[in-house]
Amino acid sequence: MQSKMFTLAGAAALALAACTAKEKPTQDSTADAPTGGVTREEAKAEPDAPPVTPMPAATVIQSQPGPDGSQVDLLSVKVTGDILTVAMRCSSPERYNRESIRVAQISVIDDATSQRIGVLKDNEGNAMVSNLVRSSSPDNDNMMVDCTSKPGVMWAKFPAPPATSATVSINLPGVAPFDGIPVQR
Fold it and tell me: In the 8-state DSSP scheme, what is residue 168?
């Protein structure tokens, strides 16, 4: 048993020595050659490669005036499974705006039943919105939005209205309402 351990230890020592041994320079090596056997070449574009196509601009469903001269564009209202996701962007050509929107005041109205639907919460009780800023009370949680000349994207998730509801209205504090918006399913 002891001889097997010495044999294994000897083999391990030889393998380690082989890994740490330094290569001797050959007569063909030059001072400009990279060390470690790595050769680097400049990457060149393939002449037949198709050009990169930019993503198409987002289609705006509806625009409404927002706080401090900003504009809020509604980009999508889509149901996936049992969740309704509303995506928007905020911009302001005048100046830099950073808006704080109280989550408890964000809602979707089911136009068929006039039922108000609040923001969906995850298993930990966090509102499912972009850029959530938690407070000591969930009633005071905020969604932060940058409204600048480079638009800031924001989104919120809600329980989906019934399939019989073709349109919804979306309400955010400080923004004119988005009324009669078709729901994409």
Answer: E
Asked whether the beta carbons of 169 and 109 are under 8 A apart, the reply is yes
Residue 16 lies in a domain: no
**Within-domain flag for 43:** no
DSSP 176: -
Tell me, yes or no, if the pTM score tops 0.85: no
Per-residue pLDDT, 132: 85
Task: Give percent of the chain with pLDDT exceeding 70.
Answer: 65
Tell me which residue has tokens 């289609």.
59
Q: Which residues of 77-86 are buried (b: 16+ CB within 10 A; e: fewer)?
A: bebeeeebbb
> 163: domain range?
62-178
At 105 the pLDDT is 93
